[in-house]
TrEMBL record:
This is ABC transporter ATP-binding protein. It comes from Anaerosacchariphilus hominis. GO terms for cellular component: plasma membrane. SMART domains: AAA. The lineage of its organism: Bacteria, Bacillati, Bacillota, Clostridia, Lachnospirales. It comes from the Bacteria. Residues 7-279 form the ABC transporter domain.
Length: 283
């Protein structure tokens, strides 16, 4: 496996008033890896995803994508007094970088959400096509007056091909919400793939799935990783899925990473057993 660095999270702290949701987090993900982020409820996993994808500007720290700094912030003004994390000084002389989620998507980072967020009143096909429009190269004028027919045709063709690859062609005209739960999850992942990401963030993709659906999802994630040459970063509570699919795992507890390693190493790490697994078997 190549060791080209795709994502580097450096000293990220996210503070909401008195709550430090993510506390000086450092992690690195290399090209082609599937890396999982686990930890008890409220450990700060979704907040970390929200910082990486531009939903929140961090209170402090920086994020690099393929070697380029894409996010950076440090406590300023009144926040300086309130800030309770570490290392603010190292960023103070640098400018703030806080791209919006759509800009992050255009860079090549896509995500899914803990609660499925499909366009409910749109068909399966239109859910994919709308996501494709995020990458549109035409300007507002051509987009408004549909003058760029060639680009639209290409997007439609790519959407059809994507539906075929993920096995949803037979339901292309159905409303997204009429699909069974497992297929809605698959559509949500397909919609993220429509933006042609290199890094895919999945927030609890197996939430609410039965064992059979979870097994199918495990195979699906592995399949799309290979087919689309993806790097995958995943939050998941289903330990069987995490242990089966991850190359490496990071464990968060109270916003702080307490362990990193292969599934085998994590399984046997006493800190993890104490903080999270509680010595119990897989879910
Ligand atoms: N917008 C916000 N404002 C204030 N506090 C927040 C906000 N978002 C998250 N938090 C707090 O930050 C902490 C971490 O929450 P987060 O949702 O990131 O945890 P999590 O590890 O994803 O949990 P779960 O596994 O239950 O989804 C919690 O104490 C939460 O209440």
């Amino acid at each position: 496996m190549s060791t080209e660095n795709v994502l580097k999270v450096e000293n990220i702290t996210m503070q909401f008033g008195g709550v430090i949701a993510v506390d000086n987090m450092n992690l690195e993900i290399n090209k082609g890896e599937i890396v999982s982020l686990i930890g008890p409820n409220g450990a700060g996993k979704t907040t970390a995803f929200n910082v990486i994808t531009g939903v929140y500007a961090p209170s402090n720290g920086a994020i690099y994508y393929k070697g380029n700094k894409i996010v950076q912030n440090h406590p300023q003004g009144k926040m300086k007094k309130l800030y309770r994390g570490e290392n603010p000084a190292m960023y103070e002389s640098h400018r703030v970088l806080a791209p919006t989620p759509d800009k992050i998507t255009c860079l090549g980072i896509a995500r899914t959400f803990q609660n499925i967020r499909l366009f409910k009143s749109q068909t399966v096909f239109d859910n994919i096509l709308i996501a494709k429009h995020m990458l549109r190269t035409s300007n507002v004028f051509t987009a408004t007056f549909h003058l760029n027919g060639k680009e639209e045709a290409r997007m439609r063709e790519e959407s059809e091909r994507l539906l075929e690859i993920v096995g949803l062609t037979d339901v292309r005209n159905e409303l997204a919400t009429s699909l069974p739960y497992g297929k809605q999850r698959r559509l949500e992942i397909a919609r993220a793939l429509a933006t042609k990401p290199e890094l895919l963030l999945l927030d609890e993709p197996a939430a609410g799935m039965n064992p059979q659906e979870t097994l199918e999802l495990t195979e699906f994630i592995d399949e799309i990783r290979k087919k689309f040459d993806l790097t995958v970063f995943m939050i998941e509570h289903h330990m069987d899925l995490v242990m089966e699919i991850s190359d490496r795992i990071y464990v968060l507890d109270f916003g702080k990473p307490i362990a990193e390693g292969t599934p085998e190493e994590i399984r046997n790490n006493p800190k993890v057993i104490e903080a999270y697994l509680g010595g119990a078997d897989d879910e």
